[in-house]
Amino acid sequence: MTITKISFGESPEGAPVDLYRLENSQGLKAQILTFGATLKLVTVPNEQGEAVDITLSRETLDQYAGEACYFGATIGRVGNRIAQGRFTLDSADYQLATNNNDLNHLHGGNVGFDRKLWSAEATELPDGSSVRLWRTSPDGEEGYPGTVQVEVTYTLSDDNRLRIAYQATTDRATPVNLTNHAFWNLAGAGDSILGHELTLHASAYLPIDEALIPTGARLAVAGTPMDFTEPHAVGARIEQVPGGYDHCYILDRKDSGLSLAAELFDPKSGRRMTVETTEPGIQFYSGNFLDGSQSARGNVFKQHGALCLETQHFPDAVNQRSFPSVILRPEETYRQTTVHTFSW
Q1: 105, 181, 247, 340: which one is catalytic?
Q2: Model pTM score
Q3: Which of 74, 137, 175, 344 qualifies as a cystine partner to 148, CB 3.0-4.6 A?
Q4: Helix (H, G, I), strand (E, B), or coil: what is residue 98?
Q5: Torsion angle of alpha carbons 102, 144, 278, 338, nearest 10°?
Q6: 261: pLDDT confidence band, cut at 50, 70 and 90?
Q7: Is 310 known to be catalytic?
Q8: What is the CATH number assigned to the segment(s) 2-343?
Q9: Among 107, 263, 310, 313, which one carries the catalytic annotation?
């Protein structure tokens, strides 16, 4: 295992931004950026030993700091959507930014965790290496109550596992729902994911309204184009889903530990990724809004040029009491873990 650290420029405030490169003995590489606690890039070797990008990335810090794209970023304080940016907690009403088409709150607001600078330290382990990142989210940041101490640790091991572990504490009740927003394409960035075969270990999903907010119902996937309980090509039935896939699936969990959530296979390259998580849900997004306006390393990211498998609690949980709670209180510690395992 090797860890290298290089400069990636300066933040808009003039602070240094670092990039950590992790590589295992199998040639699997992960790049971690202190801006946004971002999983900047994951690469695997092809048959010629050349590195193939299997995530979407940006090339410059200005691109990450500019318009939000969320490529590989840590999302918080609350990932996904909050209807109309409003919620009530302990009899107090809160209004957050409606940064999603002026309708809903999305991925933490105007300047979420994805565009904040994090502190970091790297550690060599007996069977891998890790980068721990942490920051303080002050009371009132993006309209949220309470000061939150949050950390994210990326660990790459020699058995081709990339573990993302989250932890947070607060001095006042506040919603917390962290996730990673990597855009995956096992065929290589610039290709299409419509031929990828996806399995989701979820027999139900959350239907959504026109603003992509869950209606509160829980529907079985059986007999619908939402059914990925057996492997299906992403593009096989996508035309039957208005707008494409952007839905939270309810995982078929048996306990509170790591549980298999998703399996992704690219028949063209033979590459495979599995996702295990401690979370109750996984947001499957089929790259519907990619439009070719973004690119990196010579690869143009067109519609369905990548997909996201975001492990998390359910969208709009702060307003829907039937959903698992996302409220973190001072006497509690938020923890969640997601593990990606790769083979090729």
Answers
A1: 181
A2: 0.97
A3: 137
A4: coil
A5: 70
A6: very high
A7: yes
A8: 2.70.98.10
A9: 310
